[in-house]
Amino acid sequence: MSADRARPATEAEEAATRLFVGHRELLFSVVYNMLGSVSDTEDVLQETWLSLAARLGRVPLERIDKPRAYLVRIAVNHALARQSAIERRRETYVGPWLPEPLVAAAPDRPAPDTGDAAEVSLRSESVSLALLVVLESLSPLERAVFVLNEVFGYAHTEIAEVLGRSPAAVRQLAHRARAHVQARRPRFAAHPRVRREATRRFVEAALGGDVSALMEILAPDVTMWTDGGGKVRPAALRPVHGREQVSRMIASFGQRRAAKDLEIQYRHVNGDPSAVVFADDSPYAVMVMDLAPDGDHVADIYLVTNPEKLTRVRQEEEAR
């Protein structure tokens, strides 16, 4: 929202603020699921508020049909416009790029009352880190349609109004996106208790450097992504495939960090039970595991160590 404190807010700005605040959680979730970046999402929300305030400066709120849908349309279109800048940044990104994780408090630990929309959004429409990785392979329009339709339940006709496309074009985009996601990520959701137990077994074996235990936990075709952004080592410059290669890399990770004062806290990351690793009282890594359909083996591992993507975790710890 506006940072101009030198003058009182206009009626248009006050009306924009009331409408915006009432739907901020929804807007954050929609845009974050489209972009996978909290900082870019916050920038888009700022642009959304500015656009809304400018419109209400010309047209009274009472004359805007479906204000909630209008807000979503503004936010989605600002998010689509930001995609080109994001793609340019990723062209020079060192190593695999993973979405910025949204970390919630542990189940037995209340979250601080910060009024933060990112924290609240985890309790509603949350997309797993694994699915966000798949969504990265969609075109921006396909991703927008998938998020609005599959995650938020918007009808094709509603999405057509948001994107300024025909319902037929939206249906075609939705079909392509759904087929692509289903091909890369078949529908399987492990019970939270199973995920928690698998996560604990994996972390204990990983940080203990127990290769034999890791070999039992990992699926034969497991894939590991390590996002250090060129700022943290060790981190592979491309995804690592296969049980033996992944287990060696994880064991090496555990051994190299053995000299540090490590603390493991089990949190929910993008709605899924996961682990946050603290080194010397500072967030060092977020570890997210995705299970194979048998529920017994880890199929995908996402390790985020880029300090810039752990900033929010650090800020939330300081607020506790």
Radius of gyration: 21 Å
Average predicted confidence as pLDDT: 85
Number of strands: 7
Report the major sheet: 7 strands, mixed
Secondary-structure element series: HHHHEHHHHHHHEEHEEEEH
Strand content: 5-15%
Continuous helix count: 13
> Percent range for helical residues?
40-55%
Helix/strand/pairing category:
alpha+beta
Spatial separation of the terminal alpha carbons: 25 Å
Q: Give the uncertain stretches in residue-range form.
A: 110-115, 117-124
Q: Strand order within the widest sheet?
A: 1-4-5-6-7-2-3
Query: Shape from CA axes?
Result: globular
A few lines on this structure:
This protein is α+β, with helices and mostly antiparallel strands and about 325 residues long.
Textual characterization of the structure:
The longest helix has 25 residues, at 67-91. Strands 1-4-5-6-7-2-3 form a seven-stranded mixed sheet, sandwiched between helices. It is 51% helix and 15% strand. The protein has 320 residues and is an alpha+beta fold. Helix 2 (24-35) crosses helix 3 (38-56), helix 7 packs across helix 9 and helix 8 (156-163) packs across helix 9 (167-184). The protein is built from 13 helices and seven strands. A hairpin with a 2-residue loop joins strand 4 and strand 5 (272-279).
